[in-house]
Amino acid sequence: MFFKLFFFILSQSFYYSSSQIINFTYNGFGPPLTDISVQGIASVTRNGLLKLTNTTMRETGHAFYNKPIRFKDSPNGTVSSFSTTFVFAIHSQIPTLSSHGIAFAVVPNASLPFGDPSQYMGLFNITNNGNDTNHVFAVELDTVLNPEFNDKNDNHVGININSLISVNSSPAGYWKETGLGFKNMTLISGKRMQVWVDYDGRTNRIDVTMAPFKKSKPIKPLVSVVRDLSSVLLQDMFVGFSSATGHCCLPEHFVLGWSFGVNEKAPPLDLSKLPKLPRWKPRRIYVFYKNWMLSISIFCIPLVFIPSLIFLVRCILMRRRKFAEELEDWETYLGKNHRLKFKDLYYATQGFKDLLGSGGFGSVYKGVMPKTQHEIAVKRVSNESQQGLKEFVSEIVSIGRMSHRNIVPLLGYCRRKNELLLVYDYMPNGSLDKYLYNSPELTLGWKQRINVLKGVASALFYLHVEWEQVVIHRDVKASNVLLDAAYNGRLGDFGLARLCGHGSDPQTTRVVGTWGYLAPDHVTTGRVTTATDVFAFGVLLLEVACGRRPIEIDKVSGERVFLVDWVFGFWIEGNILDAKDPNLGTMYDQSEVEMVLKLGLLCSNSDPHARPSMGQVLHYLSGDEMLLDLSPLDLCRRGMMLGIHHGVRELGMFTGGSSIADSILSGGR
Ligand SMILES: Nc1ncnc2c1ncn2[C@@H]1O[C@H](COP(=O)(O)OP(=O)(O)O)[C@@H](O)[C@H]1O
Ligand SMILES: *[C@@H]1O[C@H](CO)[C@@H](O)[C@H](O)[C@H]1NC(C)=O
Ligand SMILES: *[C@@H]1O[C@H](CO)[C@@H](O)[C@H](O)[C@H]1NC(C)=O
Ligand SMILES: *[C@@H]1O[C@H](CO)[C@@H](O)[C@H](O)[C@H]1NC(C)=O
Ligand SMILES: *[C@@H]1O[C@H](CO)[C@@H](O)[C@H](O)[C@H]1NC(C)=O
Ligand SMILES: *[C@@H]1O[C@H](CO)[C@@H](O)[C@H](O)[C@H]1NC(C)=O
Ligand SMILES: *[C@@H]1O[C@H](CO)[C@@H](O)[C@H](O)[C@H]1NC(C)=O
Ligand SMILES: *[C@@H]1O[C@H](CO)[C@@H](O)[C@H](O)[C@H]1NC(C)=O
C-alpha cells in the first residue's frame, strides 16, 4: 500500500517535472485575437467565433496557435503528454450532406500551403499523403465517406498520423456511463459538441472522447490507440485546426473554445463564456433541393388558401345579403316594436318552406317562433315601388296596435329590399273561401256561418267606427276571412287598407280590391268610403248564404253571372230562399237565411247612400232590426240597380231611378 502510494507520487512528480509546462485557454477567440494565426478562408467573427470556413467552395481554412510548442525535451527524446479540448459546430445548409470536416492537427509548420481543399481536409495532398516526412498528428472529425481512406461512414472520428487513412476511427458519438450503451451524434447537425484529445507520454496511449455540449466528459473514450508519437512529432510543433470546403453543400465550420496543455491536463473551458453560434434560417436552396414537398406546399397553400378565403368572404357577404333588411329613420319611431329580424323569420319558417297559400299580393308561409313556439303566418309581399311605403308601414303599425277578437292579430313586420314581410298569428282553420266553394267535402253549418258573418261585421264596425281612425279595409272577401281554432271569423289582410282621419274625405284614384266585390261607385269614381267595404260585405253575405262565388260563368250561355243579380232574380220571383246553399242541409233557421240574403242585397246596393252602415248591419244580423218585410221594389226605390256589374260602360244607363223597374223586368233573373 505504501509502495503503491510512493510510486504514485513518484510517477506524478515525474509526469510534471519532465519539462516546461505550457497551457493556453480560449473561451472564445477575442477580439482581439491573440497568438492565433488564421489562414485561407478562416476568420474570427465579431463575437469571437473561430470560423474555419465560410460557404466559399474548394477553400481551406487554417488556424494555429502561432507559438511553437515544445513536445520533446530533446530532438531525439520522447513526446511529452499533452491534452487538448475544444468545442466545435459544423453547420451545413443541406441538413443531410456536408463537405469534409474539421481536424485538430499537430503540424511542423504553422502554414500548410500544400494542403488540398478537399477530402485531404487541408492537411495533405495527393503526393504527400501517408509520407512519414509529413510529421503530422491529427484527429479528424470527418463528415464525408471517402472509400480511398477506408472511411467507415460519413460521420466518424479518427486518429490520423501523417495520413488521411486513420490509425483508428469510430462513428461519432459517446459511451454513456457503463452499461448504458453508445449514443450516436451527428457532426453536421449544427449543434455544439466537445472533443477531448489526450496523449499519455508514458503509455503512448491516445484517447479521443466526444460529448454533446455541456455534457461532462465520458469516462470511456470514443477512439483510442497506443502509438508512440516520438517518431511522428518533432521537438517543436504547432497546434491548431484545419478544415476544407469541397464542391457542395455550403458547410460552415466553427470552433467556439479551445484549451491546450503540454504535460498537464488541458485547462477546462468555461462553457458559459463561449460565443453564440449564428441563427440559421432554412435557406431557399435547401427547400428546393431537399424538400420539394414543402416547396410545393408553399406554392399550393396560397392557391388553396386564397380561393377559400374568397369563398369564405363571399359566403359571409351572401349571408349578409340573404338576411339584409332595410330600416329608415321614420321606422325607428314608428315601428320599432313591431320590427322583426328577417333572420329570425327565415329560421322560424325554415327558409320559407311551408307554403300556406298565395294571394294577389304575395305568398303566405307557416312558421313557428323558436322561442315561444307561437305559430305564425308570414306573408311575403313584394313591393317594387318604395312609394307609399311609409304610409303602408304606419298603417301596419296601427293595425298592430288594434286588438279585436275578429281581426287577425298582426305580430310585426320586416322590410327588405323590394320586399315586405308581415307576420300574423297563424289561423289553424284557414280561410273561409275553401269552406264555401269546396262543399260538400268541406263545409260549415249555418250556425258557424252566421257566427263568422257576425264576427266579420263586428270587425268592420270596429274599423269604421270604433277605432281611433277610420280604417277602410278595401279588400273584404271570403279568402280574407280566416277561421281561428274555434271557427270564429277573423278579418285579415290589410294589404290594401288605407287609413283616413274621421270625417275627412278619403281621396284616392286607384281602383283597388277584388273583382266581384268592387262597389260600382268605387269603380266609377275611384273613391273609397266605408260604403265600399259595406258593398263587399254584402257580397260576402250572399256568398256565405249561397255557397257561390261572386262571379260565376254560366255553363249554358258562357256569360258571367253576378251573384248579386242572381240572388235578386230569385227574390223578384218570390222564392229568395231558393238561392241558399244546397249544402246547408236542413239544419238552418229559414228566417235567418232569408235575412242574410236580403241584407246582402241591401248592402250590395249600387247606390252607396242606400247601403246601411256597419252599425246597422250589426243590428240586422243580431236580429234587433227586422228586414223580412223588405220587398224587391223597396230595394229598387232605394236605388237598386241590376246588371251593374256587367261593365262600367253600362253604368251611365242606370243612373236614374225611373229605369229601375224596366231593368227589373228585362234584366232581372
Ligand atoms: N294568418 C293566417 N293563418 C293561416 N293561413 C293564412 C293566414 N293568412 C293567410 N293564410 C292563407 O294564405 C292564403 C293566401 O293569403 P292571402 O295572400 O292573404 O290571400 P289573398 O291575397 O287572396 O287574400 C289564404 O288563402 C290562407 O289560406
Ligand atoms: C469567405 O471568406 C473569404 C476570406 O475571408 C472571403 O474572401 C469570401 O468572400 C468569403 N465568402 C463568403 C461566401 O462569405
Ligand atoms: C539523434 O538520433 C540521430 C539518428 O537517429 C543521431 O544521428 C543523433 O546523433 C541523435 N542525437 C542525439 C542528441 O542523441
Ligand atoms: C514553414 O514553411 C515555410 C515555407 O513554406 C518555411 O519558410 C519555414 O521555414 C517553415 N518553418 C518550419 C519551422 O518548418
Ligand atoms: C504536396 O505537398 C508537398 C509538400 O508537402 C509539395 O512539395 C507538393 O508539391 C504537393 N503536391 C501537390 C500535388 O500539391
Ligand atoms: C516522401 O517525401 C519525400 C520528400 O518530400 C520524398 O523524397 C519521398 O520519396 C516520399 N516518400 C514516398 C513513399 O512517397
Ligand atoms: C449509430 O450509428 C451507427 C452507424 O451509423 C448505426 O449502425 C447505429 O445503428 C446507430 N445507432 C443508433 C442508436 O442510432
Ligand atoms: C497554466 O500555466 C500557468 C503557467 O504558465 C500556470 O500558472 C497555470 O496554473 C496553468 N493553468 C492550468 C489550468 O494548469
Structural account:
By secondary structure, the protein is α+β, with helices and mostly antiparallel strands. It has three domains: 19-280, Jelly Rolls (Sandwich); 323-426, Phosphorylase Kinase, domain 1 (2-Layer Sandwich), CATH 3.30.200; 428-669, Transferase(Phosphotransferase) domain 1 (Transferase(Phosphotransferase), domain 1, Orthogonal Bundle). It has 15 helices and 29 strands. The longest helix is centred in the middle third of the chain and has 31 residues, at 292-322. The radius of gyration is 56 Å and the shape is rod-shaped. Residues 5-18, 498-509 and 643-669 have low confidence and may be disordered. Bound molecules: adenosine-5'-diphosphate (ADP) and 2-acetamido-2-deoxy-beta-D-glucopyranose (NAG) (7 copies). Adenosine-5'-diphosphate binds at residues 356-362, 364, 377, 379, 408, 424-427, 430-431, 479-480, 482, 492-493.
Brief write-up:
The chain is an alpha+beta fold and 669 residues long. Its EC number is 2.7.11.1.
The first-level CATH class of the largest domain is given as: Mainly Beta
CATH structural fold name of the largest domain: Jelly Rolls
What number is the mean pLDDT? 81
Outline type:
rod-shaped
Under the CATH scheme, the architecture of the largest domain is: Sandwich
Number of separate helices: 15
What is the helix content? 25-40%
Class derived from helix and strand content:
alpha+beta
Strand content: 15-25%
Spatial gap, N to C terminus: 152 Å
* Count of spatially separate domains: 3
User: Low-confidence segments, ≥5 residues, pLDDT <50?
Assistant: 5-18, 498-509, 643-669
- Provide the gyration radius in Å: 56 Å
Biggest sheet descriptor = 8 strands, antiparallel
InterPro entries: ConA-like_dom_sf (IPR013320), Kinase-like_dom_sf (IPR011009), L-type_Lectin-RKs (IPR050528), Legume_lectin_dom (IPR001220), Prot_kinase_dom (IPR000719), Protein_kinase_ATP_BS (IPR017441), Ser/Thr_kinase_AS (IPR008271)
GO cellular component, one term: membrane
GO molecular function, one term: carbohydrate binding
Protein name: non-specific serine/threonine protein kinase
